[in-house]
Write a structure and sequence with these properties.
The chain contains 3 helices and 18 strands. By secondary structure, the chain is mostly beta strands. The protein has a single domain, classed as Porin (Beta Barrel). The chain is globular and about 60 Å long.
Length: about 350
Amino acid sequence: MRFAHPALLSLLCTALLPLSAGAQPGTVHVYGLVDLYLGRSATSGVPVRGNVLNSGGMTTSYWGVGGLEKLGGGQSASFAIEGFMRADTGEQGRTPGEGQFTRAAYVGLNGNWGATKIGRVPNPLFQASAALNPYGFSTRLSPLMTQMWIVPYGSSSAGDSGWSNAVHYTSPVVNGVNVVAQYGLGEHAANSPGNNKVAVLKYTGSALSAAVAAQDIGYGIGISNAAPSQRTYFAGAAYDFKVVKAYASVARNTQEGSGRTTRTTHLGLQVPHGAGRWLLAWARAQERAFLKAPFRRDTAAAGYDYNLSLRTDVYASYLYDKISTTADGNSFALGIRHKF
């Protein structure tokens, strides 16, 4: 797919025109989340790793500093600097060697015309897939998120949860509908490929939420000389019946060079119970490539998330993983998550 990225730059430049002199003192907040769990981890075809105490069961642990300044005339400026952390060891990043602020590092402007951001910006496709599954942002326990984004589970979608050198635009919401578009500069020569583009059309109503997305990746995780680009198409929805919330989505990934094609189907349920909720989810990825025999991967999860307060919850979950050509893997987690 092709996006006219100069249009995004034009929107940003328009937003940067001189604003009213009625700027007001801004606010700055420190915030974050610490999530730790005890458990056992094994993926299909891989020997059991044994007992673990890991960070980020339901949400990857992180901390951040962000702020907003009112500029007058309905305009405002905002910024966020956010870093992942491994709370089990006290180290920065999701993995050794990762940068300090890879969750987000951006500055932007907001108004009745929408919002812009530039810098290291969260990936709108990652955000959409997280919003439309019962386990949310969990990249350890959600069948959809593990299959789409995590290497041991196949990582069907390239590009990571955030993009560096990105220009982002979110449109105003009209009758529950808005558009999110993002362009990432690979910073190659002008005539070289290697940029990222994504657009997401979203609807949010009282009971129904839905999104369709298209993404084209030319740099980042999952991209190499042998596989220089990847396209992903995603469609998903969730409906809240009050007694149960149902989720469904489909995704298709096509990788240039390797011929890798993955089709992912996902179904899930979230059932309120007491002070918490039951979580049920299943995803199937069907994959083929030039030098591989076709196979499928089934990943399913069941768990319960209990709220101790508005900011603290505890959870227990089981994850089953099975590639059609290898033995299954079984994981479980018992954890606690605290927001600050």
